[in-house]
Amino acid sequence: MKAPDTGKTGDQPDQPDRQRPQAAAQDDSAGLEGKFDDEDYPAYSMGRAAEMLGVTPAFLRSLDTARLIVPQRSSGGHRRYSRYQLRLAQRARDLIDEGTALEAACRIIILEDQLAEAERINARLRRERPEGGTSLPPGQ
């Protein structure tokens, strides 16, 4: 599948990199064992990622250009993708295969990702809410 390789970055210039918020606080002391389970660890080269997804490296570069996924770089400057980023790329591929334009697919995925994060936060807050507590403290 050949994706369009536009030079546009979409209409969301302040878009954050598509990495989970908790990825920013990773502790390297977890060692190799923790990296196997870490969905945000950049374990896959561009070639391997493209092979796994059944896409071309140009497609992955187009997702980088569109800022849907911004892979980390190895010390040699090569793109490295996490499992989380590969799931986003797979979703983009599915949407594009269905006829959705690249920019629209990226926007859909970003909104889906933001919704999922909001739902995770809401679920956590519900679990942490004191028994019988139904409202926020004054001023919030």
From TrEMBL:
The organism sits in which domain of life? Bacteria
The record's keywords, sorted A to Z, are:
DNA-binding
PANTHER family linked to this entry? HTH MERR-TYPE DOMAIN-CONTAINING PROTEIN, REDOX-CYCLING DRUG-SENSING TRANSCRIPTIONAL ACTIVATOR SOXR
Organism per entry:
Actinomadura mexicana
Tell me the segments the record calls region Disordered: 1-40
Which segments constitute the HTH merR-type domain?
43-111
Q: Which Gene3D superfamilies match?
A: 1.10.1660.10
Q: Does the keyword DNA-binding apply?
A: yes
Q: Which SMART domains match?
A: HTH_MERR (SM00422)
Q: Which Pfam families match?
A: MerR_1 (PF13411)
| Residues of the signal peptide | none
Listed InterPro entries: DNA-bd_dom_put_sf (IPR009061), MerR-type_HTH_dom (IPR000551), MerR_fam (IPR047057)
Any idea which GO molecular function terms this record carries? Answer: DNA binding; DNA-binding transcription factor activity
What is the protein name stated in its UniProt record?
Answer: DNA-binding transcriptional regulator, MerR family
